[in-house]
Amino acid sequence: MYFGNYVFLEGKFGIKNDNKKNHISSMDFLLGYVNQFTGYLTEFADVKIGEFPVRAGASIGNDYFSFILGLYPHSIGSGITGNLLVGDNFMYQEISNLSLISNYFTYNISITRFDQMDNIGGGYGTMSRSEFDGMQQFRVVHRFDVNLFNKVRFAMDLATIYNSHYGFDMRFFYPFVISHNYYNYTNELTKRYFDEANNLLGLYLEIIPISGLALNLEFVLDQMQVITENPENIPNAWGFLANAKYSFDGPNDGMFDLWGEFVYTNPYLYLNGKREENGAIDYNLDYIVGYRSSGVADYGYSGYQFGPDTILLGVGSEYNSSDYVWSIGFKTVYRISGQKRLGNSDGNTIDMGNSIIEDDSSIFMNAITPTGGWGNAEHLLQPVIYSSYTWDYYNLEVYVSTAFSTYFNYDFHKGETRFLPQFTIGVRWTGINNDWFK
After folding, report:
1. Structural domains in the chain?
2. Does residue 385 carry a pLDDT above 90?
């Protein structure tokens, strides 16, 4: 709903089949639904989520500023398979976002609220309800973006996860302040009474050497040990992403896009859960976050969707018609996963897997992806074919995709191979067209 040229209100309702299992074939979904319809309700494959709404909020802006408040998708960066510091990994994110814009410099602050994660023991957690009382968790990101002659762009993000009894603080809004220097977080494995924050630094570089070609680099730093620190404390943790995109004219005035991307994440990136005095782990200082949506955990990594301990190489191409009514594309990824990752989920129960930091300095100083070694890591080869068609007058889009996922050392079982085909069909309707009433 628009009010003039500068104010926009919107809402979105959605239903989806939510599954946080690491490996699943769409054939499993199909069998589950067949069993359901034939009366075998206990064979229900996954939990369906009906969240109302999954997008709701308001925005206002002009050529020099914009402000967004509500439930929206949110990401930062130019990654193709994901972004390292802020990724669009959830049904929605509860955000407020302010941008001050010019041709040469842009400042942005985003504040995102997440639900608490409670430790239920045995390496499992659960997302708490969206209480207004009690402990609160916020991610605050200050972004400084410099554009040089529309050829080179450099950006820096200062990000902090805050976890405290106070839901809001003026310090969220201080630009150019290094949050790390509040020293409200220790680099020890045991939680201290003043541990309430966890800081990340993001650096971005985009270069356009020739028309149609864009080169992007992302680097995120979670923790860096200096020579004076105890090597048995929190280990080095960082990630790196690089990609290239090239667009050129295709047949019938269409447009071809080609891309390639490489991602490396250190085994300890995002993992900063701390042990309480009783030995339980408080996960609310790491960058594994989420929401409790209709009683089901909608959780994941704040940044890269595949988390730490990952090496990924992806390539793809896409053709769009001249009027962007239809498109067809192909992509394939090869991913190597170490053992530092989340497990499966069942409703609101989260298997934290090996998403902790052990007290082992020999691992810290030699933290190389993938943990467990190349021969024991899980390898995935996944080609995907996809297409879409849009009816502009009806604001209706139909899209289909087919993926053929082949796993080697499936779920870290050495020598086990799995082939999991997946098929997706979707329909997206974006609302009433004003032309209908003319």
Report:
1. 2-437 (2.40.160)
2. yes
